[in-house]
Specification:
Layout lengths: L1 E7 L7 H11 L6 E7 L5 H11 L2 E4 L13 E2 L1 H6 L4 E5 L2 E5 L2 H17 L3 H5 L9 E5 L3 H12 L3 E5 L3 H10 L3 E2 L12 E4 L16 H7 L7 E4 L8 H8 L3 E3 L2 H16 L5 H9 L3
Helix pairs in contact: 1-10, 1-11, 4-6, 4-10, 10-11
Bound molecules: NADP nicotinamide-adenine-dinucleotide phosphate.
C-alpha cells in the first residue's frame, strides 16, 4: 500500500483526503494507495521530515509549512523555487522533490471559470490565455498562496498590482514579480480587469468579512469591459467578497476550482496517471 498525506496545522478541515481517495477509487487504485491528513505543528516538522520518506510516497503541504518544508528537500523545481513555496512533495528514487501546483491550479481554475461563465465561442476559448495580457489585475493578500497567484498572473502577462494589510509584504511581493504595491487609499485609482482575494478573510468563521469594501467595488465598476473576481477561499463557496463583486457587475469565480486543479496536478505528479478530475470535483462539492 502506497501512503500519501497532507500535512499542516490545523488540518482536520482539509478536503484533500476525500478528493485524493476519490481519485484513487475512480482509477481502482484504492487497494494500493491511500491518502490521509496528518496534523504537524511547526515544532514537529523536523521530526516528521526525518521519517516521512520511510512511511509515505508523497504529500501535500499546507499552512504553515509551505516555505519551511523546502530546507528538508533534495530538489525543488524551478517554479516552486521562484514562488518560494512548495505544496507538493514526491519521493522519487529515495529523493524528496518539491513542486508548487497552487500557481498552475489557480491558472487552470481561472481560465476554466472564465470559459464557463462567459460562454465563449471556440475561437474565443483559444484566446482566453491572453485575456489579461497587459491588463491591470489586483491581488489582495501577500502570503504564500498570493506568491503563487502573482507568479501565475505574471506568466499570463498581466499588469500586476498587490495590496495587503501589512503593506511591507505587498511591496516585497510586487517587487519580486515586477508589479506595483498599492496601499488601501490608492486602490480606487486603478480599473482592474481581475481582482483576486488571497487573504483568509471570508473563510469560516470570518464569512461575513471581505478585504474589499462595497464602495471600492462600485468605484471599480466599468461599463465597457468585462471584469472578473476570483476568491481563493472556498469555504463558504459564495463569499462576501464574491457577493459584493457580483453586485458591482463583476463575473465571479469561486475557489473550489483552484482546490481541485492544484489537487489533480499533485495527483498526476504522485501517480504519473491522468487525474480523474470529475471524481475529484464531486468529492469536494459534496463537502461544501
Ligand atoms: P497566509 O500565508 O497565512 O497569508 C494570509 C494572508 O491573509 C496575508 O496576506 C494576511 O495579511 C491576510 N490576512 C489574514 N487575516 C487578515 C485580516 N483580518 N485582514 C486582512 N488581511 C488578513 O495564507 P495563504 O497560504 O497565503 O492562504 C491565503 C488564503 O488562500 C487562505 O484563505 C487559503 O485557504 C486560500 N488558499 C486556497 C487555495 C485553493 O486551492 N483554493 C490554495 C491555497 C490557499 P498580513 O500579511 O497582513 O498578515
Amino acid at each position: 500500500m502506497k501512503r500519501y498525506c497532507v500535512i499542516g496545522s490545523p488540518i482536520a478541515h482539509s478536503l484533500s483526503p476525500a478528493m485524493h481517495n476519490a481519485a484513487f477509487a475512480a482509477l481502482e487504485l484504492n487497494k494500493q494507495a491511500h491518502y490521509e491528513a496528518v496534523e504537524v505543528m511547526p515544532n514537529e516538522l523536523e521530526n516528521f521530515m526525518s521519517v516521512f520518506a520511510q512511511q509515505y510516497a508523497g504529500m501535500n503541504v499546507t499552512i504553515p509549512h509551505k516555505e519551511a518544508v523546502m530546507k528538508y528537500l533534495d530538489e525543488v523545481d524551478d517554479c516552486a523555487r521562484t514562488i518560494g513555496a512548495v505544496n507538493t512533495v514526491k519521493v522519487d528514487g529515495g529523493k524528496l522533490i518539491g513542486y508548487n501546483t497552487d500557481w498552475s491550479g489557480f491558472t487552470a481554475a481561472l481560465l476554466e471559470g472564465i470559459q464557463q461563465k462567459s460562454h465563449l465561442s471556440a475561437n474565443e476559448q483559444t484566446s482566453v490565455k491572453t485575456i489579461f495580457q497587459h491588463k491591470p489585475v489586483l491581488v489582495v493578500g501577500a502570503g504564500g498562496a498570493a506568491r503563487a497567484v502573482c507568479f501565475a498572473l505574471s506568466q499570463l502577462g498581466a499588469q500586476l498590482y498587490v495590496t495587503n494589510r501589512t503593506i511591507e509584504k505587498a511591496q516585497k511581493l510586487a517587487h519580486d514579480f515586477r508589479g506595483v504595491a498599492l496601499s488601501h487609499d490608492k486602490l480606487a485609482s486603478i480599473e482592474p480587469s481581475l481582482v483576486v482575494n488571497v487573504t483568509s478573510l471570508g473563510m469560516n468563521p470570518h464569512e461575513f468579512e471581505s478585504p474589499v469594501s462595497v464602495s471600492l467595488w462600485q468605484k471599480w465598476k466599468h461599463s465597457k469591459i468585462t471584469q472578473y473576481s476570483f476568491d481563493c477561499v472556498y469555504n463558504p463557496l459564495n463569499t462576501q467578497f464574491l457577493k459584493d463583486s457580483i453586485s458591482a457587475g463583476f463575473v465571479a469565480i469561486t475557489g473550489d476550482g483552484m482546490l481541485v486543479h492544484q489537487g489533480s496536478e499533485s495527483f498526476e505528479l504522485f501517480t504519473g496517471k491522468k487525474a480523474p478530475i470529475e471524481a475529484m470535483k464531486k468529492a469536494v462539492v459534496v463537502k461544501l
